[in-house]
Design a protein that fits this description.
The protein has 313 residues and is an all-alpha fold. It has 14 helices and no strands. Helix 1 packs parallel to helix 10, helix 2 runs parallel beside helix 5 and helix 4 packs across helix 5. The protein is globular and about 75 Å long.
């Protein structure tokens, strides 16, 4: 974790998880509607952005205040129960809004991680996380059909090779373009040559919605297992690959990459007008979402209040 490339790797993994969640939401919408409509897709994106901003605002202002006010009442057991309840509550809200349960859990986890009790909650929740993690991976292993893997050994091998080399090269080029030195770019690329557990969730979602075949899931699991196994060896040998690559690359190219990296990292000044305009736009968006959320909540309460009366009359 003390290596310079570790920050790039962690940042890329977080972005991957966020993009995977967005893909789950969008692909679910497309699968249910059975058509690719640009208008519906834009509506889903705006709806997702609206609820994300609304949930995060509620988490920033409501949950820290709740934990602070109930500080004297929260024992370790109560804190654990409250944390799990908040997570499940956000899962219910995300499901009711038409999104994936994984999105709700991710949002609440991100919100709780920014509170003052984050370390205590992380310590208390660890046994629960380990328990469900064990159940998850054991159930994943039980779903692997060895006969299916033997039958589709060629697709597994092809996807594994494409994943390893494709993600390594793509991550390395992306890091170079962003201004990272060649050494850190190679290390980051070889550290991300695998697919994660979100691939299981996306494959399961496709099977549940009936848009993918059943053989896809064991293939995804097999590729994930193989690439997860090979990643530590790639990380260990990344410096050797960098040294060999440094010998192969012409000196002119290496100097240009070094100059590009140095010039990119030296750009730290931001235009004051850009900061001012971005601040105004962010405030407008936040206040618009808050007002719209209050209006929608009021309409929902009024409709619930008028429902029994309307039925009675």
């Amino acid at each position: 974790k003390k290596q310079k490339f570790a920050g790039i790797v962690f940042g890329a993994l977080i972005v991957e998880d966020i993009v995977a969640i967005l893909l789950m939401v969008l692909l679910s919408t497309i699968a249910v509607s059975q058509q690719f409509s640009g208008i519906e897709l834009m509506e889903s994106i705006f709806k997702l952005a609206f609820f994300l901003i609304l949930w995060f605002l509620a988490g920033i202002f409501f949950i820290p205040t709740l934990l602070k006010k109930t500080k004297g009442l929260l024992t370790e057991e109560t804190t654990l129960i409250v944390s799990l309840a908040l997570c499940l509550m956000m899962v219910i809200l995300a499901t009711a809004a038409g999104f994936s349960p994984a999105l709700g859990a991710f949002i609440m986890g991100s919100i709780i991680a920014e509170t003052t009790k984050a370390e205590q909650i992380e310590h208390l929740i660890k046994p629960v996380k380990d328990l469900f993690g064990a159940v998850f991976f054991v159930s994943v292993g039980m779903l692997i059909n060895l006969e299916t893997l033997q039958e589709y050994a060629l697709p597994v091998a092809i996807i594994t090779v494409v994943t390893i080399f494709g993600k390594t090269i793509a991550t390395m080029l992306g890091a170079i373009i962003s201004g990272q030195p060649l050494k850190q770019s190679v290390q980051a690329g070889m550290s991300l040559a695998q697919i994660g557990e979100f691939s299981f969730i996306i494959a399961t979602l496709g099977m549940t919605l009936g848009v993918t075949s059943g053989f896809l899931y064991p293939i995804v699991v097999a590729v994930s297992a193989i690439t997860t196994f090979t990643t530590p060896f790639f990380i260990k040998n990344s410096l050797q690959v960098y040294n060999k690559l440094k010998i192969i690359i012409p000196k002119k190219w290496e100097d240009r990459l070094d100059n590009y990296s140095a010039n990119t990292q030296s750009i730290q000044k931001t235009n004051h007008w850009k900061k001012y305009i971005s601040g105004i736009v962010s405030h407008i968006i936040i206040h618009t979402v808050i007002i719209a959320g209050i209006v929608f909540a009021g309409i929902s309460l009024v409709s619930l209040a008028n429902g029994p009366f309307t039925y009675y009359t």
